[in-house]
Amino acid sequence: MKKLMENIQKWPNFKRVLDPKLQMGVLTICLLVIILVSIGNSVQLNTVLLDSTEDYVEDVAYQLTNEINAKLESDLIAVQLVADSVQRLRTDVNGDQVVQDYLERKSAIMGMDSFIILEPDGTVSKSEFTVENPLEIAGVRDAFQGESNISHIGNEMLLFAVPIYFGDNIDKVLLGVRNQNTVQKMIQPKSFAGEGLSCIVNSRGDVIISPADISPFMQLADIIDKGSDNHIKHQVEQLQDDLQKGNAGVLHFTSTNGTPIIMSYHSLHISDWVLLVMIPADLVIAETSQYVVRTVVVTGLIALVIVLFLLVVSRFYYRYNKNLENIAYTDVLTGGLNNAAFQTRYRALAKTMQPNSYAVVLFNIKGFKLVNENFGVVAGDDTIKYVYQIMKENMSEHEFVARSESDFFFVCMKESKPEKIEARIEQLEKEINAFNAYAEIPYHLNFFQGVYLIDDPALEITIIQDRARAACQSQRLTGQTGCSFYSTALTQQMQIEQELDTLFDESIQNGDFKVYLQPKIYLNDNTLGGAEALVRWQHPKRGIISPADFIPVLEKNGKICTLDLYVFEGVCALQERWYQEGRKLFPISVNLSRQHFKNLNFLKYFSEIAGKYQIPPDMLEFELTESIFVDDQQLSLVKYGIQEMHNKGFLCSLDDFGSGFSSLGMLKAFDVDTLKLDRRFFDDMSSGKNQKIIACLTELADKLQVKTVAEGIETPDQLEYLRDVHCDMVQGYVFSRPLSIPDFELWEQQFTVADHTKDKMEVHP
Asked: Would 326 disulfide with which of 47, 330, 535, 632, CB 3.0-4.6 Å?
C-alpha cells in the first residue's frame, strides 16, 4: 500500500487534482449539473403526473358521463312506467286521489322531488309548481306530441316529460321534477377529495345544471382571457367545435380567480347537453413540487459541505428520482405497481403487442371483509401484501401485476387460450394457499376472476380493465365456478338482468307473481301430507318469465327476500281461506333464500305475517337448500336461524339433501324436521349402489326422527321401491306437477287414495 501511494504521488497531475480551486470548480459544476438534472427531472415528472392526472380526469368524466346517462335514461323509463300506471289508475272510482297518492309514493321511492300532471290548457295538479307557462317549454310541447324527453328550466330543475294516454289519444303529460340540489348530487364527482366540480351545459355553453359556486366557470367567455394566449384561443375554439359536434376532450385554462384548471368534457345522450368535470391542475403535483424543491436545496447543501462525498450525492439523487416515481406509480400498501403504473406499462407494451397474445385478468378476494373483521386490519393488510408478492413471483417476462384498489388485483398475462389461462389461475391460487400446509387452522383464500382476451392491443387500457371488471362482476353475481371471460353476450345478459330488476318492483305491487303448489303424498296411507309453494312470474307484457332467469337476478340484488315474504304471505292467505271454507289444513313449505340470514331478526317478519292470518306455525315449513350450508362463515347464523324457527313453532326442511359433500355432517350440526332427498338419487334406480344409499338414508333419518321426502319421483317403480325402504313422503310428477291454486284445489278434490300404485298420471288435471 505504501509503495502504491508513493507511485500515485509521483503522478504529475496528482497535485493539480488536490488544488482547492479545481475542487471547487469541479464541485460547482457537479452541483450545477445535479441541480439542473434534478430540476429537469422534476419538470419531466410533473409533466408525467399532469398527463396521468389528465387521463384520470378524463376517465372519471367518462365514467360519470356513463353513470349520468344511465341514471337519466333509467329515470325516464321509470317515469314512463309511472305514466302507464297513472293511465290505468284513472279508471278507479276515486281516480284523482288514487293517482295523487300513487305519485307521492313513487316520487319518494324513485327519489323524484315531485310528480306533476299537466293539463293541455297548462293547469297543473300541484299549486307549488310555480313554473310560468309550462306549455312554452319545448320538451313539454314534445310530450303532448307523444315524445318522452328531458328538459330543464334555467339552472333550477330538470323536467322528465312523458305523455299520458287516454285510449289512443294524449290528454295529459306527466312531469317528473328533479330540483337543482338533487341533480347536483348526481353529477358531483366522487373523486379528487372533494376538490372537483362538474356542471352540465349545452352546445352553446349555456349552463343547465351547476354547483352552487360556479362563479369561476359561469360562462365559457369568462373561462379564458382571450387577449393573452393564442394557444388558449385555439383550445377554446376546439372546445366550442367539440361541443357542437358532441365530441369529448380536455381543456387546460386559468379560471377567473387565477387557479389553473383541467376540464374534461363529454357529450351526454340528452339533447345537446355536455358534462364538464373540472379540477385544479396542481391537485396532484403541488405536494410533489414542494418536495422536489426541498430535496434540491438539501442536495445542494450536501454538495457544498461534503466535497469528497459526491458519490453519496449521486446516490441520493438516484434515490430521489426513484422516490418521485414511487409517488406516482407505487402502491403504498404492497410497495409494488399501482393502477396508474399498470396502465402506463400496458400502453408501452401495447405498442409491440401482437393481437390475441395477451389477456388482462382481474382478481378479487372472496369475503375479504371477513378477514379484516375476524383477524384485524393489520392481518388484512398482510394478506394483501402476501397475495401480491405471490402473484408477482409467478409473473414471467413481459407480464406484470398491480393492486388496483382494496382487494382487487390486475394481471397482464401473456396467454391467449382460455384453458391455459384457467390452468395458470388455478396454479396461482394453489400457491397462494400453500401456507395452509403449515397452518394450525386452514383458511383458504378464494378469488373471483374476470378475464378479457385482448384481440385489439390499440384498445384503451381503461376499456380493457372495465371489461375484465364486468366479467369478474358477472362471476360474483352468478356464483359460477372457474374464471369468467368477457363477451358481448355477457353485456347483453347484464342488460337483461337490469331490465328484470327494473320490472320487479312494479310486478310485485301488481301481483304478477303467482304461487303454485306441488303436493307431497304420504306413502304409508296414500294421503295428502303437504305441498311445496313455488313461484311463477306472469308479466302482462313479457309473458311467462322463467324462475331460472329471475331467481339468480333477485339473489344478486337482494330482492329475493321481498319475493320470499310475498310467497309466504300468499300461502298464509290461502290457508286462512281454506280454514274459512272448512278445508283440512296441511303443512306448506316455502323456499327461504340464504340472503335472509344476513339479518338476525328476519323471522320477525314471517311471524308477524303468520299471526296476521292466524295460521298455526306448524302448518308452515321453511325449505333450506343444502348450498346454504357450504359457506363456513355463515354456518353459525344458519344454526341460530333454525333454532329460532323451532322456537317460534315453524318447521324446517333441508332441500336437495345429498347434492353436496357435507350432507351427513350437517345432520349432526343442524336440527331439521325433514330431509328432501335430491332427485339425482332416483335417476338410475337400477343401480344397486343407489338403492343401498337411499335405504341407508331413510333408515338414518328414521333413527334421528327426521321425516324423509323423495322429490322428483316420476315412475311407479320408483314409488314402489320408496315404499319398501319406508320413505315417508313423495313429491313429483308421478302424482302431480306444480299447479296453480285453482288447479291444485281441483286436483285435491279428484285425488283418491285407492289403487295409487297404478299409473298416477291418470289423476293429473
From this structure: 330
Rounded distance, CA 65 to CA 248, Å?
11
Distance CA(199)–CA(209), nearest Å, equals: 6
Phi-psi region of 558 (alpha: psi -120 to 50; beta: other; left: phi over 0): left
- 64: Cβ contacts below 8 Å, ≥ 6 apart: 187, 189, 198, 275, 277
pLDDT surpasses 80 at 141: yes
Instruction: Provide the grid cell at 325.
Output: 416515481
User: Model-level pTM greater than 0.85?
Assistant: no
Q: How confident is the model at residue 517 (pLDDT cuts 50, 70, 90)?
A: very high
Residue 263 Cα to chain centre, angstroms: 28
* Residue linked to cell 338410475: 684
d(CA 523, CA 520) in angstroms, rounded, equals: 10
Q: What is the mean pLDDT of residues 8-34?
A: 55
Please name the residue that has the C-alpha cell 388558449. Answer: 232
Strands (E), 202-355: 207-209, 249-254, 260-267, 274-280
Q: Are 211 and 188 in contact (CB under 8 A)?
A: yes
Burial bucket for residue 291 (CB in 10 Å: 0-12, 13-18, 19+): middle
What pLDDT does residue 500 have?
A: 87
**Cβ–Cβ < 8 Å for 572, 610:** yes
Bridge partners of 708, per DSSP, are 675
Helices (H), 90-219: 95-110, 138-144, 180-187
**Distance of CA 648 to CAs 605, 620, 628, 639, Å?**
12, 11, 21, 15
Q: Is the pLDDT of residue 369 over 90?
A: no
Q: Band the pLDDT of 134: cuts 50, 70, 90.
A: confident
Query: Exposure pattern of 231-268 as b/e (b: 16+ CB <10 Å)?
Result: ebeebbeebeebbeeeeeebbebbbeeeeebbbbbbbb
Residue with cell 335472509: 596
The percent of residues above 90 in pLDDT, for the chain, comes to: 31
Residues 6+ apart with CB under 8 A from 352: none
The region of weakest confidence among 169-178, 396-405, 473-482, 534-543 is 473-482
Question: Residue 555: how many CB atoms within 10 A of its CB?
Answer: 18
Q: Which fold has domain 495-753?
A: TIM Barrel (3.20.20)
Give the model confidence (pLDDT) of 201-230 as tens digits.
Answer: 877 767 777 765 555 444 454 554 444 455
pLDDT at residue 347, as a whole number: 95
pLDDT (tens digit per residue) in 329-356? 899 899 999 999 999 999 999 999 999 9
Contacts of 761 (CB under 8 A, 6+ apart): 733, 734
The greatest distance separating any two alpha carbons of the chain, rounded to the nearest whole angstrom, comes to 126
Q: What is the pLDDT of residues 1-10, one digit of tens each?
A: 444 344 434 4
CA–CA dist 161, 451 (Å, integer): 41
Please count the helices (runs of H) and the strands (runs of E) in the chain.
Answer: 24, 24
H runs (alpha helix) in 511-634: 547-557, 560-580, 603-612
Residue showing cell 366557470: 217
Q: What are phi and psi of 412, to 5 degrees?
A: -95, 110
Residue of 542, 595, 529 lying closest to 565 (CA atoms): 595
Helices 547-557 and 560-580 meet at what angle, rounded to 10?
120
The CATH superfamily label for domain 339-486 reads Reverse transcriptase/Diguanylate cyclase domain (3.30.70.270)
* Domain boundaries 188-283, corresponding CATH code: 3.30.450.20
